Amino acid sequence: MTALDTGTEDLRAEIDDGVAVITMNRPARRNAFSQAMVSALGTVLARVETDDAVGCVVLTGAGGAFCAGGDVKSMAAAPADHGDGAGPSLDARIHRQRLNQRATSGRLWGMPKPTIAAIGGPAAGAGLSLALACDLRYAVPGAVLTTAFAKVAFAGDYGGTWFLTRLVGSSKAKELYYFSERLSAEDACRLGIVNAIFAPADFEREVMERARRLAHGPSVAYRYMKENLNRAVSGELGECMDLEVTHHVHAGLTQDHREAAQAFVDKREPRFHGR
């Protein structure tokens, strides 16, 4: 296991047998965002995306919560921003958050490696958005998921409206945003937001078992699969089918494919090397 220096106590990261485990670490605030946390998250994700020792990324939270999103207590304590030039301009604030969103939820969605959200407790607001940005989501029975934005008169950020619409459809996504109702893990699983629910005692083992399986799988094929599947939710059919062919033929030329074919003939498990 290799610990990564994130530059802040608000975020922990380590590489364990090919899996990068990134932990949001503000348990006293249910892992609500801090500027240090979200900045470090973007930096760490950029690092593990290009690290050949990492085959899968798991995002989770410390202390029995996933992430509460924005720190509402800090927002309430901050002085009102009247746009009088005392702080960054509105355009500068928007641009800064755009960059961070692309570096965090955008990178979780787009990086050519499988990503997993391990939801060990509440996931709300932008915290839920980060979970939705991952390829797979696993939860414990007591986890609660909520968009939460309407409760604090926000419209929503970190891509949650886009991700949720593609998981549950436009009408259901609007209902979940407008009313900000709390979903149990079981309800989220029935809607297809959560892939599976594991008992707390088994949760870490079950998630890491799947993450390691992905980390040691055919990484070239996974890269192409993920791009195909991501484009399938936004691209035109013909364009997606053309891309599938290109990726399928390229994957057929890899050593991993030849190894898997031979392993099938030999009736054994294949040994993948990402080539």
Description:
With 275 residues, the protein is an alpha/beta fold. It has 2 domains: 2-215, 2-enoyl-CoA Hydratase, Chain A, domain 1 (Alpha-Beta Complex), CATH 3.90.226; 219-266. It has 12 helices and 10 strands. The chain has helices at 35-49, 72-77, 90-103, 105-110, 126-133, 160-168, 170-179, 185-190, 200-215, 219-232, 237-252, 255-266, and strands at 2-4, 11-16, 19-24, 56-61, 115-119, 123-124, 136-139, 144-146, 183-184, 196-197. Strands 1-2-3-4-5-7-10 form a 7-stranded mixed beta sheet, with helices on both faces. A 3-stranded mixed beta sheet has the order 6-8-9. Helix 1 packs across helix 3 and helix 5 crosses helix 6 (160-168). The chain is globular and about 65 Å long. The two termini are 24 Å apart. The mean pLDDT is 91.
CATH class of the largest domain: Alpha Beta
Strand-residue proportion: 5-15%
Query: What low-confidence regions span 5 or more consecutive residues with pLDDT below 50?
Result: none
What would you call the shape? globular
Brief characterization of the structure:
48% of the residues lie in helices and 14% in strands. The chain has helices at 35-49, 72-77, 90-103, 105-110, 126-133, 160-168, 170-179, 185-190, 200-215, 219-232, 237-252, 255-266; strands at 2-4, 11-16, 19-24, 56-61, 115-119, 123-124, 136-139, 144-146, 183-184, 196-197. The strands form two sheets. The protein has a seven-stranded mixed β-sheet, with helices on both faces. The protein has a three-stranded mixed β-sheet with strand order 6-8-9.
